[in-house]
Every structure is written in structure tokens, then in C-alpha cells.
Queue: 2 jobs
Job 1
Amino acid sequence: MKGTLGSILLLSLVFPLALAVTDMRGLLKRDGFKPFRFCQLGDIQIGFGLDGWQNDTQRMHLAAQQVNGQDFDFCIAVGDLTNDRFSYEIQAFQDTFPEFKTKVHLLPGNHDISSVATLKEFIADYNVSDHSAFSHNGYRFIMLNSVTLISNLTEFAPYTSAEWKWFEHQLVSAADNDEEIIVSHHHLPFEFTEDEADSYWTFPNRVRGKYLDLIKKYNVHHIMVGHRHETKNIYATDNSFTIYVVAGTARFFDDNGFGINYFDVSSGNSATGVSQQYVHLQGVSLMKRSPGLPNGCPDIFAH
Ligand SMILES: *[C@@H]1O[C@H](CO)[C@@H](O)[C@H](O)[C@H]1NC(C)=O
Ligand SMILES: *[C@@H]1O[C@H](CO)[C@@H](O)[C@H](O)[C@H]1NC(C)=O
Ligand SMILES: *[C@@H]1O[C@H](CO)[C@@H](O)[C@H](O)[C@H]1NC(C)=O
């Protein structure tokens, strides 16, 4: 009798507590979202600037100063870390990188990776994976190697198929965990319209539709890219997502100068809770638009 009473007493004490804890978890997921900020660094591309690689390095240094002065949880650099992979360029990058006191996730671009050999060198030089993902405050950040994703070079074939599978797996797993998804990579999915012709800057039509179908299916609203050396936002036909393009700190071909995209995440709903602001690189003496367009860049397609 005493035991039963005790159990009932204990149950009546523990059960509501257990219910309350479960309830709290639900509440935390719905209402306990913690706001955060992050930044998007464009092509750092040491060696591409018209004023010499030392000045590209100086602008990377300025970017580190500027980022350190903000309360970002992390930043993502969207590829092309150096222009030619010359050892002095990589050395300059490695020497300057520790100046960032904020975690900066590094992505590869076509100047970093254009073969399996350079893919392996990228991983070794920067001590990172060429594609990866992480979760932060209810958001999943998926960072793709767009070179292997969109290339049809035979030597990349196993990497390409493995990365598509990995991408889909990340999308499914984020959805299963009720996480909002933000995607980043180097190349633009498209520049003006979803069905435009292939160009140097964009995902070829061969894979563009497959990519956009996944973006729409998994309710991705934000995509961060580089490569274009311009700063602008590109919108889906149905306005369901925004592609943020930022020029970076080596060269720009528009009137927006060198700069960094700042993001504020104010809610657990990425459709309405993510706002972006473009901020010029501070401390630059010369904001000079580059004439012409790049040439002699690594080709990542088979012919
Ligand atoms: C490159 O930077 C140096 C000093 O940091 C500066 O004196 C020089 O004018 C810069 N070059 C150009 C072309 O802006
Ligand atoms: C490489 O990265 C790992 C994991 O992020 C870290 O523990 C290690 O210290 C890094 N190595 C070098 C040489 O930076
Ligand atoms: C490789 O892809 C490019 C761009 O999509 C295309 O122009 C080219 O024809 C493809 N080459 C082969 C051999 O599949």
C-alpha cells in the first residue's frame, strides 16, 4: 500500500515534470530560436587584382579587420582563394587567414580546383573538405564544390556523382530535422533567367534544372555565390529564392566596389527571417572598376 502510494505520488510528481520538459522542448523549437549573424566573403583570389597580389592580400587583411569588428557567428568565403595557385599566393592566403578571429568556412572555385590533382591540393593546402555542411541555430548550411558538381570532366565523374548524392542526403536530413537550409557555392546557378543559355558564369543547362528542382523541393530561399566579380541579387522566377552574388576583394566589373554581404537571421523561418546588407570594404584607398572581363581562366568542362 505504502509502495503504491509512493509510486503514485512519485508518478504524479514526475509525470507532469516529464510532460513539462517535452513541452519546453517544443516551445524552444518554436519560440526559443536564437538570432544570429553571418557574412559572405566574395572571391579573395589573391593574384587577380590589377594592382598586384600584395594589394589583394592587403584587402584580405582589411576584410579580416572588418569582420572582426562585427559580431558574426561565422562567415563563408565562396571560392577562388587565389588566382593561379602559385605558392606565394597560397602562402599569402595562409599567412593572412589567421587574422580572421571569426570562423571562416572556405569553399573552392574554378581557380582553386580544375582537376582531381588540384582538388587534392585544395584539401591539403587549406585543411578543409571541398564540400561540407554544418548546423547552426536551426539552420543547415550546405556548402558545395560547384566545380565538381557541374563539371563533366571524365576524371571528376566519381566525385561528381558522389557529391550529388551527398547534396540530396544533406537536403533530406535537414528536412527530417526540421532545419531551414542555406546553400552556398562558387558558380551562379543562372544570372538572369532560370532558362537562359549556358555561359562561363553559370551552371550549364545539363545540370541546372536538376539543381533548381532540389532547391525548390526543399524550400531553399537563400543561395550565396561568387565567381561573377559583381555584386547583385538574382531572384527566382517565382521569387521563392534569392541568389546573393558578391564581388569580393580582388577585382570587380560593376559599380559596387569591394565589399562583404552581412546577414541577419531574426527567426526560425528562412523565408521571412533572413535579411542581407551589402557593406563596402572599409579602408580601401582605391576602389577602381576593372576594365574588360577575365580571360585565360581554368576550363572545367569537357569538349
Ligand atoms: C598597392 O598598395 C600600395 C601600398 O599598400 C599602394 O602604395 C599602391 O598604390 C597600391 N597599388 C595600386 C595600383 O593601387
Ligand atoms: C586541420 O583541421 C583540423 C580540424 O578542423 C584541425 O584539428 C587541425 O589542427 C588542422 N590542421 C592544421 C595543420 O591546421
Ligand atoms: C560538357 O559540358 C559542357 C557544358 O555543359 C558541354 O558544352 C559539352 O558539350 C559537354 N561535353 C561532353 C563531352 O559531354
Job 2
Amino acid sequence: MSNYQIETKCVQGGYTPGNGEPRQIPIIQSTTFKYATSEDMGKLFDLEASGYFYTRLQNPTNDSVAAKICDMEGGTAAMLTSSGQAANFFAIFNIASAGDHVVASSSIYGGTFNLFSVTMKRMGIDFTFVSPDADEAELNAAFRPNTKAMFGETIANPALTVLDIELFAKVAHAHGVPLIIDNTFATPVNCRPFEWGCDIVTHSTTKYMDGHGAAVGGCIVDSGKFDWTKYPEKFPGLCTPDESYHGVTYTERFGLEGAFITKATAQLMRDFGAIQAPQNAFLLNLGLESLHVRMAHHCENGLAVAKYLASDDRIAWVTYPGLEGDKYFERAKKYMPNGTCGVVSFGVKGGRKVAEQFMKHLKIAAIETHVADARSCCLHPASATHRQMNDDELRAAGVSPDLVRFSCGIESSEDLIADIKQALDACFQ
Ligand SMILES: *Cc1c(COP(=O)(O)O)cnc(C)c1O
């Protein structure tokens, strides 16, 4: 599929049935797989033969869907995880352990910030958070000899800052570490970070990829471009024998194109078991088949709503990277010339209290923790997803206390704008 356009990959990537086989990806609803001899099975356990033996590690339905996302991102290997949280955890924990350090953009999803700054810190991994707008010198200053990765989000949820992918990649590579990017909001339809030097991409497939609020899931894709073997002392897990897998050295056995994902499957999926249910992978694939069609409409609605909000003097401020005049407009145009996403952030005059009142009056957009769905929804992050953060952390994450995250679905933009208008009227009568 790799020479086809993204639209064709969305519809047909990852699975090519043979003669007389099912047209749609089959759901292999089986925990286990049968073998004729113990020897056959032993080869699988030793990673000497490829095949399935237990769905906690791998399942054919998941692998077909992962192969599609891999193709869409232009990677060499991919795996599905049970959630976006698991994807980001695995992506980092695959190369960083106790005593190591990671540089991350401060403008990231609240759940990821919590994972990094609290839970992974408890595991002995230190994070330094940098502004997504930091210059090269500031980014360089955040690195330490024990830094193992750099992390950011293409379009941050919910601050809607746009990452300077080329600059982050340049700095990461200068320090001999990979750049990992969470590409959830842009999706590979609008941005393919590998084309700009990023090494590993993660997704919460729960959002646009599924797109219908049906299944929580995640994905990790490897570009196969980062040369771990240049820094064997930094990445011993990939470059020296894994005693828990009979001494296999991942970079030797699976090459640069397969080492990272094979290690994540063989060790992390084996030990943590955060596999996506095959049924969910099937639902995710249905979402992927229309992702390119939906993204275009999400972006169209996002821009229409952002333009309307910018013109209404009851709105204090609007952030939408696709809106001319936005702080990130030029950067978004470079990395996402066809559109950004459907999420618009804004503040209603009167602050936090009026924001909550406004949201209560909306009829189409429902108040939900969810985002990036076919149905419009909205959220007040300071009192929901980001409520563990103090005011300083909120500011660093680009989330002001009055921020309303409005996720434009694929309804009519005319109806969405009329709904916003009537809710504002109800607040300001
Ligand atoms: C939602 C989200 C996550 C977490 O994903 P889950 O599927 O909810 O675990 C990670 N990153 C971003 C950008 C998200 O929007």
C-alpha cells in the first residue's frame, strides 16, 4: 500500500484478503492458538518463528489494524494497545527505566502529564518539561547525559499549541535520542510526523481514528529510522541480549525496522498485558475507513466555529491553529497544509462561572470528557481532565482556568454556530 495516497490507505491498508477470504477484517475472537507439536510452539516463544500463540501478546485482527495505521503513518512496524495512555507509557518505558530522564513538551494531554510527572516519576524516570515554543538553546539546556527520549504532541490537547517538529527532531537527534510524538489530534490524514524527522508516533485511537466514541484504544508506530546501534550504551535493551527472551538482541534479530515494536511486544505487552480487544480493533478499523472523509469535515466545522467565535464580542479569546492570526497559524500551515483538527479552545467573557453556564445551555454539543468524535462535545478541562493540576501547571500546559474545549463533530456548522449563539444569549440576557 505504501505508494498509495492516504485516502486509499485509510480504506484498504493493512489487510488484503486472498481468494475466497472475508472482505472485511475478521474478528479473531480467540485467546489462544493451536499447534501440532510443543516444538512448533517453542519456536514462537523463542521468537524464532512468527505466529500467534496467546492474544495477550498478539492477535491477527489487531495486527491487521496496526498494519493499516503503520501504513498511514509511513512507518515500518506498529502495535495496538488497550488505550492511548498505554501507548505513551509503552513508547517511553520501552527505552527508559529507573535512573533515566526524558524531555517533554509541557503542552500535552493532562493524562499524559500525570503519567509522566507522577506515575513514571515513581518508577524512577525523571521528566523535564519544556515550552513548545522554546528555542534551540533552551531545548538543548533541558538535556542530560541520561536523557533517553524527547516527547511532544503535534497539536496539544487541549491547549492547541502546534509543535515545531523539525526543531524538536533536530535537537533530539543532536543528543542521540528519538523524538516521540503523540499524533492523536492531527491524525496521519493531516500530519505525518515521520516526514519531518520524528522517530516514533503514538495515538489515542479513542479519538478521531475510532471517531464514533465506541472503543478506547491506542497505537505505537515506529519509523524504523532511529539507529539505536549508534548508541548501544544508551539503549542496552535494544542493543544487548534480552535474558528474559533467551538472549535475543532485538536490533540484530529484527533490524532497525522491527526492533522497537518487537521489544515492546515481547517484554511490555507480555508483562503488562495492555492489549486491545480484537472486537475493539475491528471497530477501530471501521473508523479508519472513513477517517479522511471525517477529518475534512471536522476541520471545516472547526474553522467555521472558530471564525464565528472570533467575531462575537462575548467571547474573550479563541485559539484554533487553522484560524488566520492564531499564534500557531503559520506553523500549522507548514506541518498541516490541509487542515488541523476540529477542536477549538476559547474563553467566554466572565470566566470560569460563565463558561460552565454556557456549556449547560448547549443543545447539540454535550458535556463529555471525550473529544474528537463525530458528535460535537465540550469540556471545561480545569474542572475535569486537568483538575489534578495547580494553577502554575495549568498555565505551563497552556490551559487557562476559563478554557472551554469545544470539539466540533461532523454535524452542520450552521447548526453548531446557532447552538453556540443561543447558549451565549442565555448567559448574557
Ligand atoms: C485522550 C488522549 C490520550 C489518552 O488516550 P486514552 O485512549 O484516553 O487512554 C493521549 N494523548 C492525547 C493527545 C489524547 O487526546
